[in-house]
Design goal:
globular, alpha/beta, two-stranded antiparallel ribbon, Rossmann fold, 7 strands, binds adenosine-5'-diphosphate
């Protein structure tokens, strides 16, 4: 059997992780695992975890490591992950990164490459204030990646919405949380020779091209 391929998408909120993770997952026939989407799914289904997560998400804080790691552990144990996965939004702390390593070691696997999509703060705020999402997790931008019909999902016709936590004030706090708690992973994965920096200010297609190259060379 081929060695499973696990890719970790790293970058600040709004860098384009979700947009690119979807493209990569499709191109490489891997599952796309977004912890943000998983939490929002729990929220929609009004589970206990969803309620807990909501209180952190609305404030732009990270959900505690313990519950986040457990949720990812359960997801990665599902049969559709045997060939690997594109992880989007996880790990977000060094504790989560260590946990991921331990977890993957159980499958005799490890993270293969960590594309770090780098985008300056002022661009992030603009991207997130124009982000429109569908309930199934598809992502648009009012200017940079608009749907065919305003506020309507291209594929299933459902209504698009703006995320509560994409308001500028919360966005600024999320960027701070990213700097304090997630940015240390840049060093963590550089030391493991897994980090590949990608210029996230390019067009969506330009970023995809660089990402595909990074994965092929890994
Ligand atoms: P993340 O998952 O890192 O938070 P998203 O993939 O949701 O980021 O992208 C944030 C917003 O920016 C979305 O509205 C998306 O359509 C838009 N976007 C993503 N990549 C680009 C890009 N290269 N250029 C312009 N806008 C982009
Ligand atoms: P973005 O696309 O802007 O990067 P996400 O959809 O990935 O945002 O995450 C939204 C929120 O969900 C985060 O602000 C945080 O509250 C929570 N969250 C997502 N992933 C994690 C994680 N790995 N650890 C802790 N909290 C997380």
């Amino acid at each position: 059997m081929k060695t499973p391929l696990y890719i970790v998408m790293l970058g600040p909120p709004g860098a384009g992780k979700g947009t690119q993770a979807k493209v990569l997952a499709q191109a490489l026939s891997l599952v796309h695992i977004s912890t943000g989407d998983l939490f929002r799914e729990h929220l929609k289904n009004e589970t206990e975890l969803g309620q807990l997560a909501q209180s952190f998400m609305n404030k732009g804080e990270l959900v505690p490591d313990g519950v986040t790691i457990k949720m990812v552990e359960e997801r990665l144990a599902k049969p559709d992950c045997v060939s690997g996965a594109v992880l989007d939004g996880f790990p977000r702390t060094p504790v989560q990164a260590e946990a991921l390593e331990t977890l993957l070691a159980q499958f005799d696997a490890g993270v293969k490459v960590v594309p770090f999509i780098n985008v300056p703060d002022e661009v992030l705020v603009e991207r997130l204030s124009g982000r429109w999402v569908s309930s199934s997790g598809r992502v648009y931008h009012a200017l940079y990646n608009p749907p065919m019909v305003q506020w309507i999902d291209d594929l299933d016709g459902s209504e698009l919405y703006q995320r509560e936590d994409d308001q500028p004030e919360t966005v600024r706090h999320r960027i701070k949380v990213y700097r304090d708690q997630t940015a240390p992973l840049i060093d963590y994965y550089t030391q493991k020779s897994l980090l590949v920096e990608i210029d996230g200010t390019q067009s969506i297609e330009g970023v995809t091209e660089d990402l595909m190259k990074a994965v092929e060379e890994a």
